[in-house]
């Protein structure tokens, strides 16, 4: 078993997350170099790269044996989760960062032998830090978050999803999604998966479905949400891989049951 000093790594990671966030915040109004990746709406900026490089340098100079799984290419070629792996998205919600200058986050998780031990999601412009250590509860800044309520029904819940999936779409079976949308009280879409998990943890929204999230989009949020009793799995019911893109559903277990009763989640992918 790998040695893991949860408290000291947590304190070090927190310092780096707050520092990286302060740098982004101080340059929010500077002109951006915006490039595209897989398609015209898949954006990346110099600040995504600069921030990831900041974390990679800091981690490598402090923890030589740790590995990094991250979005923008400064990490390692990670094919398994043995040992200590930092899973990092330097800016989650790049479209929000570019267009709205708010509602984006740094997402940083530390896993040990495949187990999520530490999660940080930092809403940079709000200066709001969501954080958790495995087994010790989830926090929004200094405030401990309450366990999720047991009794909420689908009809009184808010569902987060990408509204484009409710329109005819070759990749996703849109009819069950439309039925679900018509059953819940309302839908929301915030544009940052990491923050969406934190809103679940806060209890201000209730369930989340997304089809193509990467490990760095979800790792920290999953650690945080689990601490209030939330469950996240693949839409097939299988465990998350944290190694490649997974279709995910996330909610209190009772709501996950209600969603899977209502529509066959396995048909959604
Ligand atoms: P990103 O901003 O780090 O790319 C947007 O709905 C959410 O989905 C964000 O968390 C975004 O992360 C994530 N996402 C994952 N893959 C994406 C892609 N190919 N294009 C746009 N957003 C993506
Ligand atoms: Ca991206
Ligand atoms: Ca992301
Ligand atoms: Ca990103």
Automatic annotation (TrEMBL):
Keyword line: Hydrolase, Magnesium, Metal-binding
Pfam families: Inositol_P
Metal-binding found in the keyword field: yes
Signal sequence range: none
Record flagged with keyword Transmembrane: no
GO function terms (MF aspect): inositol monophosphate 1-phosphatase activity; metal ion binding
UniProt xrefs under InterPro entries: Inositol_monoP_metal-BS, Inositol_monophosphatase-like
GO BP: any one term: inositol metabolic process
Cofactor entry: Mg(2+)
PROSITE patterns in the record: IMP_1
Annotated residues for binding of Mg(2+): 71, 89, 91-92, 217
PANTHER family hit by this protein: INOSITOL MONOPHOSPHATASE, INOSITOL-1-MONOPHOSPHATASE-RELATED
Protein name, entry field: Myo-inositol-1(Or 4)-monophosphatase
Organism: Pelagirhabdus alkalitolerans
């Amino acid at each position: 078993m790998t040695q893991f000093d949860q408290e000291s790594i947590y304190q070090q990671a927190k310092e780096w997350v707050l520092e990286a966030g302060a740098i982004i915040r101080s340059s929010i109004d500077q002109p951006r170099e915006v490039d595209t990746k897989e398609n015209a709406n898949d954006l990346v900026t110099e600040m995504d790269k600069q921030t990831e490089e900041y974390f990679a340098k800091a981690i490598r100079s402090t923890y030589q044996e740790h590995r990094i799984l991250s979005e923008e290419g400064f990490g390692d070629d990670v094919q398994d989760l043995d040992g200590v792996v930092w899973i990092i998205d330097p800016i989650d919600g790049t479209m929000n960062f570019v267009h709205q200058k708010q509602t984006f986050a740094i997402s940083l998780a530390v896993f040990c032998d495949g187990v999520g031990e530490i999660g940080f999601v930092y809403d940079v412009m709000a200066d709001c830090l969501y954080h958790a250590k495995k087994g010790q509860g989830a926090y929004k800044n200094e405030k401990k978050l309450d366990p999720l309520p047991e009794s909420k029904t689908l009809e009184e819940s808010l569902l987060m999803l990408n509204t484009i999936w409710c329109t005819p779409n070759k990749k996703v079976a849109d009819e069950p999604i439309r039925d679900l949308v018509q059953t819940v009280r309302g839908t929301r879409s915030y544009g940052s998966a990491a923050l969406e998990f934190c809103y679940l943890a806060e209890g201000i929204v209730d369930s989340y479905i997304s089809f193509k999230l990467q490990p760095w989009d979800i790792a920290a949020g999953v650690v945080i949400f689990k601490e209030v009793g939330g469950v996240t799995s693949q839409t097939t019911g299988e465990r998350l891989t944290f190694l490649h893109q997974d279709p995910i559903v996330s909610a209190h277990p009772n709501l996950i049951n209600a969603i899977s009763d209502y529509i066959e989640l396995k048909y959604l992918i």
